[in-house]
Structure formats: C-alpha cells, structure tokens
Amino acid sequence: MSTEVEALKHFYDAINRNDLAVIARDFDPAIVRNEPASFPTGGTYRGIAEVQANVTKGRGSWAEGTCEPEKYLVNGDRVVVYLHAWVRMKGATEWMGGRFADGFAFRDGRIVEYHSFAERAEACRWAGIEDGEEA
Questions:
Q1: Strands 110-117 and 95-107
Q2: Which of 44, 49, 102, 127 is such that its CA lies 20 to 30 A from the CA of 117?
Q3: What is the layout of strands, in order, in the sheet containing 62-75?
Q4: Binning pLDDT at 50, 70 and 90, where does residue 40 land?
C-alpha cells in the first residue's frame, strides 16, 4: 500500500473518531482545500489552519455517523477516494447519506490539494483516472 493511501486512511480514521486535532498530520503548510458551492461548507480554504477549521466545522455538524472510504484510486501524485457518508446531523432524528469522492494531490509525501466532488466521475477526470465504474 502506498504512503499516500496510508496517510488518507489515517485522515478518514481521525474524522470518524472525531479526533480532529490530528487530521492535519499529513497536510503541507500550503494546502488548498476546494469544496463545491453546493456543499454546506463550500468554498476555497488555504493553509493548515483554514483547512482544519473547514473539516472541523463540517464534522462538527454531525451528531453521529461515518464517512467510509470504499475505494482508493492512485495516479502518480493524485489519489481519488470513493466515499460513503452515513450521518445523523445535530438536532435531527433522520439519518442521511450519500456517495461522493475526494481528490488529493501529494508533494513530498504531504497533502497539497484536497478537493471534494459530488460526482465520482468528476474526481476521476481531475486526477486523470479512468475507473470505468458508474458510481
């Protein structure tokens, strides 16, 4: 398993444990986070502090749940992670979920880009990956 995939497993494990103090372990100081405008915390975030605050805000809206990686696809320094989220938001009784993808770019073993995509195919196009999966 690649160093990049190991770093991402650590990242999602920390999110699922709600251990947000350690999520930035593999972030490069110049990390850039892009989240679609259609997402609740959509926007562009720069640097470890902003990206960590963005992830903390998003995870902080959950009463309980998980964001589980289903598949890792690697193309050089880019990794796409297919995810399945299943959460109950704070103040809600209903569970909600969906499948989407995150894309990461690495440099010297550190995460320099972190993107979320509503459509998995869009993430694969960003990374130059032909998965062939309709998901």
A1: antiparallel
A2: 49
A3: 43-46, 27-35, 110-117, 95-107, 78-89, 62-75
A4: confident
For the whole prediction, is pTM greater than 0.85? yes
Q: For residue 130, what pLDDT is reported? A: 87
Hey, what amino acid is at 49? A
Q: What is the CATH number of the domain that holds 65?
A: 3.10.450.50
Token pair of 26 as six digits: 């593999």
* Residue 90 within a domain: yes
Per the CB < 8 A criterion, the answer to whether 66 and 85 are in contact is: yes
Domain residue limits at 117: 3-125
Residue 22 lies in a domain: yes
Total number of domains constituting the chain: 1
In a domain, 66, yes or no: yes
Measured distance CA(129)–CA(106) in Å, rounded: 16
